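Hello again, I could really use a second opinion on something today. I've been staring at a protein lately and its backbone has me curious. Can you walk me through what the tokens say about the fold? Take your time with it, there's no hurry, and the full record follows here:
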Amino acid sequence: MPKLLRALNNSAAQFVYRIPLTTIDANGIETFSSSLTGPSTWLEFDDPDTNVVRSQVVNDQFQRYYSASPSQTPQYNTLARIQAGSPNFQLGINPPGCAPEVIVEGGGSSATLGYTTGNGDNGYIYGNTCQLFPIIPNAAMTIADVQWMPMATDATCSFAAVIYQDLNDGGNVPTAPGVLLGVGSVITGITAGVLADSQFVNQPGLIANSPYWVGILINNTEAAALGDNLNTSVSFTNTFTNGPPGVAPGVSTGQADLQMYADLTTTDVYEARSYVYTWVSAYGEESPPSPYTLVNGWANGTWTIGLYNPVATDMGVNRNLAILRLYRTVVGTSGSTVYFFVADVSLGSSDPDAIAAVAADTGCLPPNTIYTDILSDAVVALTLQMPSTNYYPPPVNMQGITAMPNGMYVGFVDNQIWFSEPYYPHAWPPGTVLTTDFPIVGLGLTSGTLVACTAANPWTITGVNPTQMSMVKCAKPEPCTSRGSILSTDAGVYFISPNGLIMVNSSSTSTNTTELWITRERWAQLAPQMYTRSVALSSTYFCFGATSPPSVSPVDNSQAQTGFNIELNTDNTSFSIWPEPGGHRVGFNEMTAPYAANIQNILTDPWTSIGLMIQNGNVYYWDFTDPLPTMQPYDWTSKLYQDNTKKSYSAFKVFFTVPSGSPTPGLRNTAPTNDPSWNALTANQWLIVKIYVDVQQDGAGTGQFTLVCAREVQKSGEVLRIPDGFKTESFYVEFLGRVVVSNMQIATSVHELGNV
């Protein structure tokens, strides 16, 4: 008899999943309790056809669990949230519905860096000095010239443009001038109010985002227009006729910023650029991209992107979104266009997991409605390409989620088989869907091969990647009558069809394992044909009918207390489903529900492989380790025995052992043979033996059998008499008992019985 494990929190639940207490040590090694009765967290679901799978992600810090059933959308949750009683999230992330807004301003094939206008005041640049100001080009450029505004006319004034590399080569903040990079042409003569210009004959190339120092070397002291009042320029003395030094000497800082600037030629082009963005959850799950926005502009322009937040329910109720991830295109030399990562922007969620995800993303920007993109194509092209182009959520009505090898998950909708991206349970690309010709009833798995049990022929599916799966259709139609009857084993996937118990192996061969000894008509009488629930229990295919799922109205309990079991082992030391000569006599056993109540479900605890039963708002389990179990009474009927001549049997003996924990017999039942008390075993009885014979005396033999003897047995091997008054060639025996019977002996007399 099954034992009570726990009462359901939801008395209407028809499926449960146990999560044992887990601990993680200082080395990150996870351990869990292997005891079914140990501390555990229980998930409960209303639909008996629910599937729950655990994350296959390596070192999944969130320990996520995924579920799907016919009556709910696919869902998932983290262990911490499950233990806290927090609701599930919907599995998968829909793509953003709005395209980003994009505005591009400025840019071009030339650029100007420095102080192009004056502030209205005048300053001085002293003779035989070199005055420099810092610039930081935002793209790869070449410098064409340096211009400045004289405030006096002097025909003897000579000057030349100069450019120095920053002393801290490789940095991105100006420190001090370092190595000389180039000298412009010497210009003699200046005019007040007219820009003076010295051009570089060999234009030095500048690196994006690197600081440089640009200015002029001059022979005379001259008045010049001021550019601003920040005084960020530097200067050093140097005889003009000697030319600029190869390395800048010690400089004087805090010099006035003159109206002086550099003209540069950029390598940027006028391009078509597309932007998209995705949502990223607190657990690193990324959505497909939004609709794109395509805008033309200069690559070195300022691209301003308007950002959108997701709907409120996707930030903590339906999904736990944490980050907006922006991508843009970079056109390759081959003409192909790829989206590259640009930036992460926090969505400002208040969920603790989302806050932690933003904190862990060191480059994530604070929440904002705009992002200004000034990154060059060369920089962006070195970032990661967008991986989630086809990471769509599973269909809302997908069911039967099953974990497969190589990190894949699989589910089905109608006649469609859906696969997730390996190790991405939230991503279900529509392009990898396979279809069968008839509706799918359920899925099973054997030796890495997926078996789709349908309303007609089974299918097998193999492969190591969703894009490379192959299908084989079993030749013979074997309709699956119930999803709950599907049992996955290493030998094959078993399920109930109207023809018998079917097994499909990894070689795509289907076998009716019962057709040689149970006819189709008899199978329909012996085995429940709908709402069946099966598990592998102690080497048997253990199956009960159950109450109908919530989708069936009105409720159908017609099969909820009948069941059967068939031995699955086929080695020579155990029973086989085949009635082989010389042994293996027990193959098929009918069962009635324990506790005489409707069964809601039969399932297996994956952490212990122990069979569970849901009945009357409780969870029960079969404990094969109990040395003193409570045995469930059985009703066993022998085969039909036939002698060569009619005999009058008068005595019998039964040999048996009494299991531990069996009750002590009370007063022996001595009621007449036709008394109703012989129809059921009472709580304090060990064994009732009933003998049926064909009592026709005229030789006609109608095959109709009559109960001629009913006896209660209280001692192994005791002699019990059979009432006389009949002769028969044919008889069979029925045992109602809770003891383990080894054999029965029957004879025409007590004397003969002693010689058996």
